[in-house]
# Entry
Amino acid sequence: MSDSLRLIEQPEWNALQTHHRTMALCHLRALFAKDPHRAERFTAEAAGWRLDYSKNRINADTVRLLVNLAHACGLPNAIAAMFRGDVLNVTENRPVLHVALRNRSNTPILVNGRDVMPEVRTVLQQMNAFAQAIRRGEWKGHTGQAIRNILNIGIGGSDLGPAMACEALRLYADPHLRIRFVSNVDGAHFYEQTRDLDPAETLFIVASKTFTTQETMMNAATARAWLLARLRDEAAVARHFVAVSTAEREVIRFGIRPENMFRFWDWVGGRYSLCSAIGLPLMIAIGPDRFEEMLDGFHAMDRHFAETPFEQNLPVLMGLLGIWYINFFGAQTHAVLPYSQYLARLPAYLQQADMESNGKSTDRHGRPVAWSTGPVLWGEPGTNGQHAFFQLLHQGTVLIPADFIGFAAPHPDPLAARHHPTLLANFIAQTEALAFGKTADEVRAEPTPEALVPYKTFEGNRPTNTLLADALTPRTFGALIALYEHKIFTQGVIWDIYSFDQWGVQLGKVLAGRILRELEAEPEPPLRHDSSTNALIRRLRGVRPQHS
Ligand code: F6P
# Structure
């Protein structure tokens, strides 16, 4: 995009606005009736995934005009720049190279002229050796017992990715190991996650890119106290704590030995770090081979994103469809609905990936944007959501584009497999109902008393994507996460925002530090906030435990 023309001044944007006036009046019923090959026309495949985007309020012109916009906004150059290691995270002066973490080719990737691939491979080998030692019972705790419990202490990108992935790939995990996650600074989280554990068999992974995050440091200090209260020997820390971080000095200051540290690099964003050493709990759970299969899946989607024409490019198409609804139809939220209990944590993971990346209102020239950017992303697994919020999706007053994610193969357990046709029937039925609805005449013909007809009518015309893979494997899982990462990238480029910083989380952190001092200081210090904040601080100073 040229400096002089902002996004909404581009001719390609204006063309889409004009086109929207026509498409806003079209119903999916008519679009499907007109074209018997519509499903085929609007389906694309990559890395084990099939995207059917035919149930969107688009025609061939929409795709053409959206692709034109992507070109006008410089998406091809931006993709090349990311894979080349250019400094795309300008406000933090860093390249954005999560693709290097799963680069399975022999191609070097350069940061400041230096190939980062040897370091990436070295850390993967270190993780591999450690994961094997834990899985084989060779890594002993301080008292000589094998480790059975792994507790990851981290938050945000240092928690959500591995926590979501351990749940997603649970079927592949060693059932003898308990892998748990502590993130919240609410002490109840640590308490509940550890109350039934034996410290002699427990290993803590302290995961923090910066190793300064308040919640993580507090939970890590509590973990240390919990361990030492039972094992009563400082030397135990070396056998029960490892760190994943970019900050060696901070790790050593905490008391973790450098040989027990797994490194990553400042060119890996927290929310894009699952394939780095941040994935260590996952590698311990599923083993190095499965972990590598996951990296293969990520890499396959990376190559697809970098090499495929936009008209067949899954992340680009999904990104552009998001732009279509957010910027032209005024949609403000986007639902992600996995029809897989294993993917229960996917929406929470994607909330950070998407909302921390594209929840921005300043463009890349420091000016306020004059267009909507990242949506509120939310979701729950199907079929649970159907009995909760789907009412609003079907008959509410807001337009909510939704991704339906499903798998063809049933669960390997024969009893669980019996559920699969029912799960799939619901998966398919919902997108059909959302698209086509039910007319008043169809309701009347049921027959239905006239007074109830308006209530039982479904307008339809509610857009969905269907993402389908054969089975949830490490490989298809990796490809799915990469798909969403690159969708987010596509949208950030078009919105002309920096997707890889997160300044919006700073203010609250700073204020919390000040308020903590004011809550704890004796006597009460002068409070210089607004009257509401001052009153809350006064009310909560010196509160004591109330439970018996
Ligand atoms: O507060 C936001 C954030 O900076 C995220 O971007 C990051 O994933 C998380 O905190 C945790 O940071 P760290 O890994 O440095 O502890």
